[in-house]
Design brief:
This protein has ten helices and eight strands. With 311 residues, the chain is α/β, with parallel strands linked by helices. The protein has two domains: 166 residues, Rossmann fold; 112 residues, Nitrogenase molybdenum iron protein domain (Rossmann fold). The strands form two sheets. The chain has a four-stranded parallel beta sheet, covered by helices on one side. A four-stranded parallel beta sheet has the order 6-5-7-8, with helices on both faces. Helix 7 links the parallel strand 5 and strand 6. Helix 2 packs across helix 5, helix 3 crosses helix 4 and helix 5 runs antiparallel to helix 6. The N and C termini lie far apart (90 Å).
Length: 311
């Protein structure tokens, strides 16, 4: 009897220890580091309380130029998944951080947790052909990286994040699938709503500061007549401002817009000369206090643009 009792105690201890170990595994959150808030927002929608999401760039920052803070290295060191835009958008700051983090899960582009979200976009715009040099400005050879400004691309990225989470944390695959399908349905319905709202303004003519809005214009059916920057990354010269003014005489400009992380002075001067409405808008989630997730971001963006076009 003593032996049986002793064996029973050992079995109970082992079972309890196993349960505690399993509980710790199930309670451990997947660490996700996203370079920009758009990716982080979608990751939160799908992962909910099973993930911890850290975003490096702020929504009001130019994502091409982010200060690589030392605490970002710590966050990347602990990451299970790194979500980044790709297409060289983060080339000036992310590679150094990833190398310093010494995390094999994200260390290389082929690492299991390194997710270049541009790989899931079906139609990359403005891919450069032929040779490119610095005289052409800050050109992205592989294509324009602002693809999240087309909400249909948000659907593609959401699917990729769901699949990666299911791969990294297969125990919770059904949980991620349910959240992904909910988000997909919600975003798909909103896209129908937004497209209906934008339809009366199709073929409107725009000037933008930088080619930030290429994917948005392509989706909405807008025309980009010109940019305030003569070449990417270069502020306008007096001769370029004169060029924009002359263009406005032959082509009716409906609106001038720019991302709110660019300086407004030149754009406002040009808008005043041309006699057109000007909008400085968030280009990412958390770009201002009114846009705290991917869907409210587009709600705000489309409301602002259509209200100006209606006026």
């Amino acid at each position: 009897m003593k032996i049986n009792f002793f064996n029973t105690i050992i079995i109970l201890v082992l079972v309890l220890a196993g349960n505690l170990f399993s509980a710790n595994i199930s309670l451990a959150k997947v660490n996700i580091v996203a370079t920009v808030p758009d990716l982080g927002s979608i990751a939160k929608e799908i992962g909910q309380d099973k993930v911890k999401v850290t975003t490096l760039a702020k929504g009001y920052q130019n994502p091409h130029f982010v200060d690589p803070k030392p605490n970002y290295i710590i966050r990347l060191n602990k990451a299970d998944i790194l979500l980044h835009v790709g297409l060289e958008q983060e080339i000036g700051w992310l590679p150094t951080l990833v190398t310093s983090a010494r995390n094999s899960k994200i260390a290389t582009k082929n690492a299991s947790g390194n997710v270049d979200c541009s790989k899931f976009i079906k139609n990359i715009l403005e891919v450069e052909k032929g040779s490119v040099d610095r005289s052409q400005g800050d050109v992205h050879v592989e294509g324009n990286p602002h693809y999240m400004l087309n909400p249909r691309n948000g659907l593609l990225v959401a699917e990729a994040i769901y699949k990666k989470l299911s791969e990294v944390d297969p125990i919770n695959k059904s949980f991620y699938e349910i959240n992904y399908l909910k988000f997909k349905k919600k975003l798909s319905l909103k896209i129908i709503e937004w497209e209906k709202k934008l339809k009366p303004h199709k073929s409107s003519n725009f000037i933008s500061y930088h080619k930030t809005w290429t994917y948005f214009f392509d989706w909405a059916g807008f025309n980009l007549v010109d940019t305030v920057e003569p070449i990417p990354g270069v502020p306008p010269s007096p001769s370029h401002i004169a060029k924009l003014y002359n263009e406005s005489k032959t082509t009716k400009i409906n609106l001038m817009i720019q991302a709110n992380y660019y300086p407004e002075k030149s754009s406002k001067i040009i808008a005043g000369k041309i006699g057109v409405n000007f909008l400085s808008l968030p280009a990412m989630v958390n770009g201002n206090e009114k846009v705290n997730d991917y869907i409210t971001f587009f709600d705000f963006l489309i409301d602002q643009i259509t209200s100006k076009l209606d006026s």
